User: Fold this.
Amino acid sequence: MSEAPLLPASGAYLGVYYGDGSVSDTDAAIGRTPRLHLTYFGWEDPWATDDVLGEDLDRGQISLVNWEPFGVDFADIVAGEYDDMLAQRGREVARLKEPIFLDFAAEMNEEEGWGGHDPELYVAAYRHIHDIVSASDGGNVVWVWAPNNVDSEGAPAALEYYPGDEYVDWTGIDGYNWGTTEPGFDWQSVESVFADMYDDLHTLGKPIIIGETASSEDGGSKAEWIRSIAPTLRDRFPDIKALVWFDVEKERDWRIRSSPEALAAFRELAADPQFD
Assistant:
């Protein structure tokens, strides 16, 4: 694996998207403050300031910004229509006291379909954003490229969207155990959720972040699924250097506190020496 910025000293970072209660309540429930804090921002949101991300630093966390370009024509990005805004983000992020992870247009190979499932356009837009922001960011952006764990039917394969080694610091995977709530969904182990995409990304030689994950309660033991995460990373997925739990009730009950058993398992996970 190539050297990359923000690598943990050992093991992997643990992260959370706080969608179920306050930061302080969640941290108290799991028994620690996770090292990564995932947040979501729209295309023109002013995310790159201490006012927005400073609280993460105060808590000793690294910010993971998921930048979502809803409603944006990627051809306009490539044509330079947003260059002033992008340069401004670079100048703002340069003033941050510590580097942050930036995950732009994640899950491009799945239903999000950023850029219209056009890999050439997606790559051109990603590279353009990278070049404009990086020209003034002082090295404070660590660039993440994170496809979904499965490709949409009929869509190009994830690696066709890869912007290139010089544009990506960390690769990533978003993937969930959807359980058996709906027809067509099966209970999946941690290994089966991530194995195929992990093996593809391993060939790129970059550290890997699980940018979003969680498990349903339906169809198996969510608590045992959580307990299996740390040993699976150690034994099967050594390139995974960060994992972020999507703590919210949305398509499924992904919450850490969906049951007392799930919470107890997550407290064990948070205390596991695998996780910084």
The longest helix spans residues 119-134. Residues 103 and 144 are 5 Å apart (CA to CA).
